[in-house]
Amino acid sequence: MKTITSTTVDQGGYASNETISTVHPDILHSHILIRLDGPSLAALACSSSHLHALSSEENLWQNICSSTWPSVNHPRLQKIISAFPSGHRSFFSDAFPFLDLQPLKLNVNSLTLPTELISAVDISYRNKIVYSKVEEMETSSSWFLCSPFRVDLLDPKDSAPTPIKYFGGSNKVDTWLKHLEENLTLSWIVIDPSRKKAAVNMSSRRAVSVKRHWLTGDVQVRFGMVMGGGGRRGSSRELVECGVVVTCVGKEGGEMHVREVSMVMEDMEGKGLNGKDSLVILEGVMENGRRKKGNGNEGKERYEEFGERKRERKERRQRKERALDLVCISIGVAGFVTFWSAMLFR
């Protein structure tokens, strides 16, 4: 085995391509590449053509995807991902980055709506998976297209146990809820199996809000992704929210169970979108939506901004309604006075 005793470093502080190329590929693979996460491996691939070739190996990206999202180990998903242009590397580049909040130009006539969607969902607590599910959904029926869009992963009678201790006491409940917000994460990847490159993560990763029902004690952990809805500026569809709610139950000191995991789509007035409108937005995001790096708080920041814009919109609508009511009342009073004045002077 060749021993490297020195490393040539250029003025920028990086090892030269000549030095890297002298290291046997097996050593790079077994001691460096397999230890990197997805973003680090992608960054390394940009440093040189030699490292790009080594970092593009399918087994590296397959291992990264499997460890990041255990749900993708589902046999059907593995078959679908293998058809992507660069396999698991393409899937990671689609599913890992955050969606950029940009207006979407949606042309319903030019979009081919999918007849099926597959959801790959993973819930983690302190970076350890507590629940995974692959949900296949038929989307071509008239019932789906006309009904409110909603995806439920658990049957109402079922629940999934977690290692999280349920705390329902009133003394430190706020601290416990804050703990859940910081340590419970969710990934919800939507895949169109009819296309060769169509996957997008619809979750904020970290919770945007955690609330406990004052009567039942149920805990609702909400994850949300805000995106362009294809509507004109100022309309209710300018922005839409894809909201995921994880409802948890339990008894004091016992294990917390996940009872509900559901996804809905809502506009800026809080109205649920139907299946067809939701499919149009999802296809537009998959095809034209921009991806970008984001921090762990970006989802919550967007959600809070979206909530503020919803409140402002509601207040403007209420002011308009009050003004309209005042005009109607004024016209009614004027008409009433005019009528009785005419009657008195006959």
Automatic annotation (TrEMBL):
Composition-biased stretches (Basic and acidic residues): 298-310
Membrane-spanning parts: 323-345
Keywords per UniProt: Membrane, Transmembrane, Transmembrane helix
Keyword tRNA-binding in record: no
Region (Disordered): 290-315
PANTHER family to which the protein is assigned, alphabetical: F-BOX DOMAIN-CONTAINING PROTEIN, F-BOX PROTEIN-RELATED
Designated name of the protein: F-box protein At2g27310
